[in-house]
Model the fold of this input.
Amino acid sequence: MKIKTTTALVAGLLATTAMAADKSVTIASWGGSYQEAQSKALFEPAAANTGIEVKQETYGGMSDVRLQVSSGQVTLDIVASGSGSAARAAAEGLLEPLDYDVIDVSNFYPTLYSEYCVGGDVFSTVYAWNTDTFGDDGPQSWADFFDVEKFPGKRAYRGKVAGALEPAIMADGVAPEDVYEVLGSEEGIERALNKIRELKPHIDVFWTSGAQHAQLMKDGEVDMTTGWNGRFDNAKKDGANVAYSFNQALLDYDCFAIPKGAPNKDVAMEFLNEISKPEYQDDLPKYITYGPTNKAAYDTGEITAEVAAGLPSSPDNAAMQVPVSLEWYAEWETIAAEMYQEMLTE
Amino acid sequence: MTATDMNAAGLRRDERLERLKLFGLSSPAILLVLVILVIPVGWLFYVSFIGADGTFSMENYERMVKRKSYARIFRTTFEVSLLTTALCILIGYPLAYFMSQLPNRIANLCLITVLLPFWTSLLVRTYAWLVLLQKKGLVNNWAINLGLWDEPIKIVHNLNGTLIGMVHIMLPFLVLPTYGAMKAIDRDYLKAAANMGASPARAFWTVFFPLSTPGLFAGALMVFVLCLGFFVTPAVLGGGKVIMVSMKIVSNIELFVNWGAASALGVVLLVLTVVVLWIASRFLKLEQMTGGGH
Done:
């Protein structure tokens, strides 16, 4: 009986794949309001315009891709990923090189695509503060964030090393343009960690997810935190008294990659080209305050000046931020993460 | 051959046959244990000796010695587990005793209230504690309104919050076996003790308590071992500062490019747990805990 059902199921699946065999891709992303935004702005309209059938899944990140590639059972054609983890996955040989003859990136910011991953949206790691505690004129730099005399109050900070050392080293007096040079040695990392050690008695929570740092601000559990800008905007919409600044923020991006051995690799390239076009990217900010990676998306008129001013990737905002260095993460993240854990467990 | 000899041979044959039948009956269970326990654990053990470059290496274990954080994480894990167990005993034993003295109908009602949290998802209960205990949560608000304290105090995002959440989740594991052991104690023993002139306290400590210990130890051991592998509750209520082994296993899977780095942690935790059980078995009679032999 069971075998019969399974056979029927497999046959059914085979039949559907056979019908859609000409053009279909499976995309995995992070779920939640983020994937909803991607789906509405990018995936669904692009599918309608190209006739490519899109199947969406949620996944747990590059460790899932690693499992699929190492077992030879790759089912995903496109994955949405953080730029740093994509760079590491590429170094491990888990990703297909992207064909930029197919994917048009001529209007992209040059730092927002790489050999293995093409940018999908731009976000920032910012400092946010409770406007009840500090008013609208909260901290204006990372130095202020680390200054508990000028801004007394409880902090939250990231529990992982990504995006945690740059603020500390800037607060310690390093100029934004020298951040990664200084962090490029164990001494430099230790210097940043020492700065965090100073602040640690005032850090109530080391957060582990975007939902968490948004909730911490919404509940007034802490007075100041680091975090991802889009989450704070959503918290604000929900009534949280929170503000943030792009000054000295870390400019980072999410990107799309193709796992090695993806079943529909060529269609995936074609689809990535489609969703990278400005006419889709200009819709993304309607659903989440993350910016487009294609500069031309600002010229279509869909993104109003007011909306643009609030996006991490608008030229004015981008100019005051530090672009995250993928090279640094590829070389130092593992070592830095272990050193970060030392600091956390002290 | 005499008649007795033939009889003895026949008995031996019967015995052998019975053993064979018993083995036959238990073989599915043995096979199951082999397939879902022994083989994966063996694989885990093997993988923990595979380094980043895919060859045999001790690097996953060397890392644990080199970096102090690993020792600290193991210490935190055992500390949190011990404290949770101790608190469960302090709260759970009197509760079980109280229930054992009640008439059956009321005791059953109490038992249901003890079991009720069991039927709610662990994740939901953990987040409920977060809502209750946070700075502007119900507990702090009520206490301030009642004038118990003036400023919100920090109950969660630290060890305290973690312990509150874990004790709440673990309590039924201690109460149930303890209550079972207490119900099995013959009341006439206590009457006999009183008859011989023992005060109620003396009768409790020399007669009742020792007879209830198999259940108590079984519960305590279960709580302790389950605590060692806890993930969600310390992750949510510990504020990122209470880091237990299971959390480090997850971060190692994300961080290192091979499964070995995480497997080695699993192996060390398993070995330490076995050591704890072995020590416990030296002092306590483990077979009593399963209800066999008195």
Observations:
- Residues 1-48 of chain B form one domain.
- The radius of gyration of chain B is 25 Å.
